[in-house]
Amino acid sequence: MIAATNRDLPKAVKAGTFREDLFFRLNVIPITLPPLRERRRDIGRLAEFIVTRLSAELKRPELSLGAGALKVLEEHDWPGNVRELENVLERAAVLSSGAETQAEELALPVPPVSVHSPSSPYQAQLDAAEKALLVQALRDHGGDKKVAARAMGVALSTFYGRLKRHQIS
Questions:
Q1: Considering only CA atoms, which of 74, 130, 81 is closest in space to residue 106?
Q2: Where do the CATH 1.10.10 domains begin and end in the chain?
Q3: What is the pTM of this model?
């Protein structure tokens, strides 16, 4: 069995948010891979592999990536890692009419505004205020994320997303 996650499982076990017995069942041979954005030189070969596989699956003549498309792929940050790359290439393969995928056919999603590079002074203040509220809610509720999320009136998944965006653990 192969299992993948972007969570720090040893930390989750210590925090009691992941079962210790399950961790030990899964942790026989751990393989740690850096995210795709840290392996940019792998993107070209990986994309070509995916495009070749998609050609066969879609029963289309051999698809390829134009130089501009490859450059765009290599410059993207890939927050969704390989799964996002596969989705982008599959969408392009289905929607493109030619044998060579061009950069404009990739339709990469617009990356969210980074906390580290706000687009305006207002955004910087909004980010700072949100971070302060998240920290305060966690403090007020003894670090219980479920209770803090409920107190803030947001879904737990939204709360976790905001914690991640502001790099709060």
A1: 74
A2: 121-165
A3: 0.56
